[in-house]
Design a protein that fits this description.
2 domains; globular; mainly alpha; Cytochrome Bc1 Complex, Chain D, domain 2; 133 residues
Amino acid sequence: MVRIRYWVYLMAFTGLLGCSADCDEAAQSALQQTPSGYAEGSWRARYLELGRETYHQACAACHQDGKDDAPIKGKPETWTNRSPLWSAVLLEHAKNGYLSMPAKGGQVDLSDKAVAAAGEYMLNETYPELPRD
């Protein structure tokens, strides 16, 4: 009986070692990065893709060239006088409008998630070195 238990443990341990080798290969392939710096197919990459699409649909008209003093995506110097609370304030302004910025970029049918993703996309493109929540 003790001998059988020994072999069961030995086989289970060997199986785990084999699994961990396969898992290492899977983990390495998952680390293939997208241009945004996140693993392809990850929730973060998909979220930023939604943000990119929403940005081009609703935000680029002003944030591409700084129309009406809008901060420009990719130019940190245009964001310097903004709130240090970044995401929280940015998302409230994007959803509800602020000064000359219309709510949801003037596209009232956009979901709050799409608007938030667009804000994250702009911040990610402007400050790629900063850690994200």
